[in-house]
Design brief:
By secondary structure, the chain is α+β, with helices and mostly antiparallel strands. The protein contains 3 helices and 7 strands. The protein has one domain: Roll (Thiol Ester Dehydrase, Chain A). The protein is globular, with a radius of gyration of 20 Å. This is Acyl-CoA thioesterase.
Length: about 180
C-alpha cells in the first residue's frame, strides 16, 4: 500500500467523559461551550493522527445542538476524517450522551471541523490522502465537497464588492425586520 494514503478507520478517535456539575450552565444543562471545547480537542487529535503533524482549526461548520446533555451523563464523541485536500482535512464529529442508569443514548450534536496541517515552521503541510472503503465514507466525502462548494458560493454571492441590495431586498419582505436605509 502507498504510504501517502491512510484508511479512515485507522485515524478515528473516540473519547468519553462523564459530565460533572462544573460543566453545567445556569439552566443545569451541560454548557455548549464546554462541548465545543471537547469537540475541538477530538478534531485536533483525529487530524493530527491522520496527518502526523500539528494541526489548527480553520473553521467549524454546522454545529446544531439537537438534544441537551444532563449532568451525570456519559458523553461519547467519535471523530473521523471525512475529507482531505492538500493541506486541510474535514473531521466529522458525532456527539452522543448516555444516561448511565437507564442506558438510554441520545444523539446530541454532529459537526464538521476543518483542520489544517502545519509543519515545524508553521507553514501549511501536505496531508496524506484517504482510502474510501465503504458507501458511508464515500457519502461523507461527497457531503464535504458539497459543503465546501456551498460555502464558497455563499461567500461569493455576499461578498461586499458583488453584493446588490436591490437583488436581495425583496427576499427580506417576509422577515420580522424594518429596513431604514
Amino acid at each position: 500500500m502507498n504510504n501517502n494514503y491512510k484508511k479512515i478507520e485507522d485515524t478515528c478517535i473516540t473519547i468519553s467523559e462523564l459530565m460533572l456539575p462544573s460543566h453545567a450552565n445556569f439552566s443545569g444543562k451541560i454548557h455548549g461551550g464546554y462541548i465545543l471545547n471537547l469537540m475541538d480537542q477530538i478534531a485536533f487529535a483525529c487530524a493530527s493522527k491522520h496527518s502526523g503533524t500539528y494541526c489548527v482549526t480553520a473553521s467549524v461548520d454546522t454545529v446544531n445542538f439537537i438534544n441537551p446533555i444532563e449532568v451525570g451523563e456519559l458523553v461519547t464523541m467519535r471523530a473521523s476524517i471525512n475529507y482531505v485536500g492538500n493541506t486541510s482535512m474535514v473531521v466529522g464529529i458525532r456527539v452522543e450522551s448516555q444516561n448511565i442508569q437507564t442506558g438510554n443514548v441520545k444523539h446530541c450534536n454532529s459537526s464538521y471541523f476543518t483542520m489544517v496541517a502545519k509543519n515545524e515552521q508553521g507553514s501549511n503541510s501536505k496531508v496524506p490522502g484517504i482510502i474510501i472503503s465503504n458507501d458511508n465514507e464515500m457519502r461523507r466525502f461527497l457531503e464535504a465537497i458539497h459543503r465546501n462548494e456551498t460555502r464558497k458560493n455563499r461567500l461569493e454571492e455576499f461578498d461586499s464588492e458583488n453584493f446588490s441590495v436591490q437583488e436581495h431586498a425583496k427576499d427580506l419582505e417576509k422577515y420580522n425586520i424594518k429596513i431604514e436605509l
